## 1
Amino acid sequence: MEPLANEYVSVASFYRDRSILVTGGTGFVGKVLIEKLLRSCPAIKNIYLLVRPKQGHGIRQRVDQLLDSPLFDRLRREQPGATNKIVPIAGDVTEESLGISASDQNLLISTVSVVFHSAATVKFDEALGLSVTINMLGTRRLLHLCHRMAKLEALVHVSTAYCNCDREEVKEEIYPPPYDPEKIIQCTEWMDSDLVETLTPKLIGDRPNTYVFTKALAEHMLLRESGNLPVAIVRPSIVLSAWREPLAGWVDNWNGPTGMIAAAGRGFFRTMLCHEDMVADLVPVDVVINLLICTAWRTAVDRTAGIKVYNCTSGSQNPITWKEFVDGCFTYLHKHPMGGMMWYPAGRCRSSPLADSVCRVAFHTAPAYLIDAIRWLTGKRPIMVRIQGRLQKAVQCLRYFSTHQWHFRNENVRQLSARLSNEDRATFPFDISMLNWPSYLEDYILGIRHFVFKEKPDTLPESRLQLRRLYWIHLISKICVLYWVWRTIIMRFRPAPKNLRETKDRHLCILSQSKS
């Protein structure tokens, strides 16, 4: 179905009878994308989902596990049978031709109109060789397939706002790469993996990790190799839980700040290096998804030369500082406490590396060893040192982004929103200026509680009772520590009163006279 050039075609109408290919559909962003497409574009024909067998689970079993998530409850309730439009395709972006069989390739080539490419390794500390294979070679292999698609109207590539984090101002354009992507690919292919690892810090330069480095190179590959394909790039910043749909607060992973907030809610994460006054550029996952869907629509109905880039960020329109984010999270952690708390949830960001290191030892490392020692003595398996190790690894990955600030331009995003009809703007909202941060953060904490920790609402009264107990224990322990400091340090170095010194001198004088 060809869109009419002189007539507004709604987003849902554009997707009517069209087949979609999604890579990375089993990931956090991919799941929400599939659900939204099926629910808000009900006339869509098929969604082909590239899936690889994993840990003994076949592709059909993995799709069934994906659909078993509460994320799809609303869809099942409102449109029974809609999930039958999901067609799993066996494949792997790390393999030649994406690991797709010849018959499946022919199916995709002859039917697919829109491609969403969200498959990537999002591990910040991933080995450069694997990051190149997934984020760069996977993108190239998908491009080769897209060049053969007769009906292709839009290819939307999911990048990251931080792929150009070596610049303070990031516009919606593809910047020159730090290296020729082809040479980086060749290096990882012929060099020994240990040598590549040794050279990685030198290669990535001012960028903090292999993820943003390879994402920057992948964008340039798209520019150079897409030819006349209708391509667009969406760059989200730090993606958090859902804002409105399909479930407010929905989140199903520990990535980014979520893992640290979850640990803080349990009381065993209390400090991180962070500049409180800097903007935390955070975006809800459903904002990203709505922008992706509308970007594909715009790319198809308003075909232009070149690749349009969309910075999906919040800092320029609706900023929130790291202090406001952290304080807000603790406010709602106290209002809706987690079960199984080990200590009273409290903590703060620290801008001094020395202060953060001291507090990390005092509040994280030392208690972890103490708890594990107690667990070992009582016949239980020590786990806290390992958990703290993972948390510190996550903190190290986030540290660069919590101690730097960028200005992301997003004129293309605003123009796209203005291009939509009022109905489409209501169905696919991505105007971040409408988000109320306190309300969103409350849903975020409730989402962590419900979807990550699997705690039901009826457990809240018991958790609040435990929180009150821990608060008094926390308060009493602080008073005891302050008293100990006062007794052992302040009193020891406090000068003796004048009359006491005079009495002491008189006694010494009498003693010396008696000896003489």
## 2
Amino acid sequence: MPVNKAPVSNTLQITSPSYLERALKLKLQNLNRKKTPKPRPSFSITNEFILKFNQTKNSTEHKKLLEVARKNILKCKRKLGLKTLGCGRHVYLPAAWTEVMYLAQCKGEIQDEALNMLYASLDHACFDYDHLPALFFVAESVLHRLCCDASLKTYLYSVEIKLTKIGYLVFLRLFIFFLHGYLENFKQHLLRLQPYLRALYFCNESYQKYPNIFSNVQFILKTSEVICKREMPSESIFGPVKIYENTDSYTKRSQSNQGYQVSHLLWHCVSAWSCVQNNSPQLNNVLKHLLFHKTELLTNCWLDSGLALLILGEAAKLNMACLKVLMDIVRDFLSTVMSVQNQNKSCKVDDFSWAWNIVYLYTTILAEICLFAATSDLRKTAFVGFCKCKSSQKNILLMEKSEKQPELCETSILGLLEYFSSTISDNCDQVIWTGYYGLVYNLVKMWELQRDEEQDGFTNITWQTLQKIKDNEKDARIQNATHIAQAELNDPTDPFSRYSTKVLSNVQEEVFAKYIAWRIASALSKLFFYSTDVRIPSLKKSSIKRDQMKHLTTKSEPMKKRVLRFTVRDHDSVVDFPLFPYPDFFTKADKELAEVVDHHWEEELKNRQRQDAICEAQERKDKELEEKMHFREIMRKRQELLHKQTKPYELPTTTEVTVVERENDSPKLRSSCRNL
């Protein structure tokens, strides 16, 4: 086969060795770039990285590792969507929660920032079925840290507070998924949690001196008790079911497929929140029925009662009537509990050893209303109360221990401070000192966070109240509340002697849970009211990207429809009126009248704009005419004085110049002739 030879050039030697070497090198470089995979990111967190980060003693190497961890923190912040409330195309919460839990194992500031990010994300994230595997992973990690690390230390440290708060939010979300019937396919995950729950059950006594932590631990144990017994009763590590016995709102059932009964109180609180959100005129009727079922707060099924108060507190941030009902319910509850506790021990009375959980939760709800309520009247009422018979100065000055025990009239912050401070002692009931502890604990955080210049009066009352507690209260338990609150705010200095220091803005977001109650109320309102055939509506499903679909090898089993029975449907008075009625004749007439008024107002604006345009045009014409008349007057005076018809700064014509020159030259010629 003939070979075509390339033409040889006299000026350039193409077959030179140097050129061939350079060409081969370029080809090899291109092939290597195509074949070699992309390098793995240097800031990916692994077990080796965590061990190296915690065990290194070289300062230079530690700085490099710290920089890598900070880069990963920034990446996780974007995945969590902290600035967009967990929404956006760049947000993928399951992967972000898992990665943040790995970062939380790095000791120091990285651990604190990772836990703060996780708490904020669990607070505002929506409820999604795809989050369940990641939630179980976070739950197992938190329980492992509490049981295998925190319990081995003889002192309390700030990470325990953050871990218990995160565990509270995780199990709160799991309980909502349990009500929807979505935990039936996660029995293996529940089984893995049981050894840690058993260990936490034996470790919770060490937290009894700290109600802010102890309440979260109790909620985790109570929630897991209900979930595990309903989902896998034969494998439960807890004792026999006792929370459903001898109660009107619950009935004892041995089979888990019969559904979970929700109390009347919780149902009506969700109904009240829905009315507030939709501005329904049936709110007053719902609140009347809610007061009718206020005695259910006295049952030892405090899990539903706590959720009910949490949702009603969320409605109280927007509506004064809901705030009044909330305070009235807790006042009756606290009065009943204290009267029973003061009875003779020989008498057979109900056991209210769980009541302190409700009281402490209520103090936290009051603090959140004082900080995040929609109006200043709601914030002031939650702090001072509705009663105006006493001055605010009288409420601030707490009663001495020797004075007579006051009557509980108001369940505001000042009212409860006056009541608890006068009855506290070394041998007082747990409800009293726990409620007092919760008030002081939340007041310190309120004092640190409400640094708004528009609320100087509210801030001053808070400061005066804390100063009075510092001067008069010598109880070590109450003094611990101030120290723990300051430790949670990452500032151990004295809160009563500082005037200019402020808490960092990134710390404010992790002190209180601002969105979880709204998320829960929204999810339960869809569960309770939007289904007519008593079937569970599906939660929001996140859109899975195509890249993520490649890694899904197995398909999940189809979910079984689960029936959720509500005992409130047996109450005829509630079903008589619809929750969201159609608008009546007057409402429709008002709407149509508003549309007519808006239409005529738009026409009036158009007419005014036309008249303004005509007036502006006429003013322009008048101004131009006035300028013309002024110019004519100037030209007339110029002609009279100078005998010129040209405009100012205008050169004369050639004829006019020759005439002027002739007139000027004629006298000179005559004089010269005479001299000759």
